[in-house]
Amino acid sequence: MNKALYRFWFVFLICLIGCITENKAQSSTKNWGMRFGLNAVSIANYKVYQGDEMLENSSFTNKNGYLLTAFARFNINRIFLQPELGWNNYRRTCSFSLLIDNDNNYYYPTDLDINFKTLNTNFLVGYNIVLDTPFLFGAFVGSSFIGTYKTDFSINPENRISHTGLFLNYTGFLGFSINISKIYFDLRYEMSLPNANLDLKEIPEFPDIYQDITIKKTESILSFSFGIMF
Q: Most exposed of 102, 135, 139, 143 (fewest Cβ within 10 Å)?
């Protein structure tokens, strides 16, 4: 079991102990809460270019990241509006074979670990399919604006690079939420990010041999979280 799962279950037990004696339903017109969870970046349409040449033997690895989000909920009968402010850590590994010697067809295998730290502002609109206190079951759709403020790169993994600077992106998502008294669960799928490509020449800290590498990909995000809603 990795560190992410240890942290996940630790926070879950704290939330459960804090809410085990609470039997009230969330029936007010306004609620607020916090949720903690895991996210997983899903990569598709993955291609790596060295200059104008597409590199073969390219692959990727999806990894779990973390999220922490505060939110408010405004209830209008079965409909609810939910603005959120959250922190996310997105992780993935992009692998490719870098062409070093064109004459002798010599390739250098590279594993590039990419770790984004972001601030997300979300807004969702939902509908409570089940409104039977103390149980709630709702479906929702929404949008997210993502501000990446720090990116950590690791190459094979002895070479580590940190790059700071604000990069903005956005996405839409859909999902489900479940309330059992004050305990809150959330599962959501964020659809393809419109700009997930990575051009290494825009990051001057990279070694010269990587400056003509461009990674073109699409990314979606699946996340699961739990928390407390008061």
A: 102
